[in-house]
Amino acid sequence: MIRVLLVDDQAMVRTGFRTILESEDGIIVVGEAENGQVAIDRALDLAPDVICMDVQMPVMDGLESTAEIVRRGAAGAVLMLTTFDRDDFLFQALAAGASGFLLKTAEAEQLIDAVTALAAGDGLLSPEVTRRVIERSVRSPEATTSAAPELELLTDRELEVLHLVAKGLSNSEIAGTLFVGEATVKTHVSNLLTKLDIRDRIHVVIFAYENGIVGR
């Protein structure tokens, strides 16, 4: 059962999200919070698998709340939800440690898919948003063609998987490319996350582009 915490300052929005998510077998909303400060307390108490977090709220916004929740390890993953398709929100959310970013205008099925993906340990961004992340990383002054020290910890096979993850391939697509089982790919991805000290696939992609891994 995927346990979800809903964080939004509008009660009607929380009710709508609850209705959508609990219509799906295997998902249960275990709590709600009306601002980022309350969200921290609820996350610590409930340890949800996924937090659906609004960006703009009174008392404490979703970005600050997410950073604190991630720092404390109080939840499995944070999905940022907003009505604003703005790059500054996107990159601040990712920097805070969010594992996914979804507009509130998304279809109900997309919300369910997003929560399911994050609960499974996958990051989630739309292809368009992913492209913006990549372009920002490539243009960033921090981007470098030098190899990050952490790469020395990876095996040759893990480096192959890193390249394919960075190109946006799913586990099943990577399995087909490397002629291995999907379970083997999942193990390699898990090892990548551990060795690179990265939370999810989205941040693996950012790491790869910021460190000049893709295109070598």
Automatic annotation (TrEMBL):
<dbReference type="InterPro" id="IPR058245">
    <property type="entry name" value="NreC/VraR/RcsB-like_REC"/>
</dbReference>
<dbReference type="InterPro" id="IPR001789">
    <property type="entry name" value="Sig_transdc_resp-reg_receiver"/>
</dbReference>
<dbReference type="GO" id="GO:0000160">
    <property type="term" value="P:phosphorelay signal transduction system"/>
</dbReference>
<dbReference type="InterPro" id="IPR016032">
    <property type="entry name" value="Sig_transdc_resp-reg_C-effctor"/>
</dbReference>
<feature type="domain" description="Response regulatory">
    <location>
        <begin position="3"/>
        <end position="119"/>
    </location>
</feature>
<keyword id="KW-0805">Transcription regulation</keyword>
<keyword id="KW-0238">DNA-binding</keyword>
<dbReference type="GO" id="GO:0006355">
    <property type="term" value="P:regulation of DNA-templated transcription"/>
</dbReference>
<keyword id="KW-0597">Phosphoprotein</keyword>
<dbReference type="Pfam" id="PF00196">
    <property type="entry name" value="GerE"/>
</dbReference>
<protein>
    <submittedName>
        <fullName>DNA-binding response regulator</fullName>
    </submittedName>
</protein>
<dbReference type="InterPro" id="IPR011006">
    <property type="entry name" value="CheY-like_superfamily"/>
</dbReference>
<feature type="domain" description="HTH luxR-type">
    <location>
        <begin position="147"/>
        <end position="212"/>
    </location>
</feature>
<feature type="modified residue" description="4-aspartylphosphate">
    <location>
        <position position="54"/>
    </location>
</feature>
<dbReference type="InterPro" id="IPR039420">
    <property type="entry name" value="WalR-like"/>
</dbReference>
<dbReference type="GO" id="GO:0003677">
    <property type="term" value="F:DNA binding"/>
</dbReference>
<dbReference type="InterPro" id="IPR000792">
    <property type="entry name" value="Tscrpt_reg_LuxR_C"/>
</dbReference>
<dbReference type="Pfam" id="PF00072">
    <property type="entry name" value="Response_reg"/>
</dbReference>
<keyword id="KW-0804">Transcription</keyword>
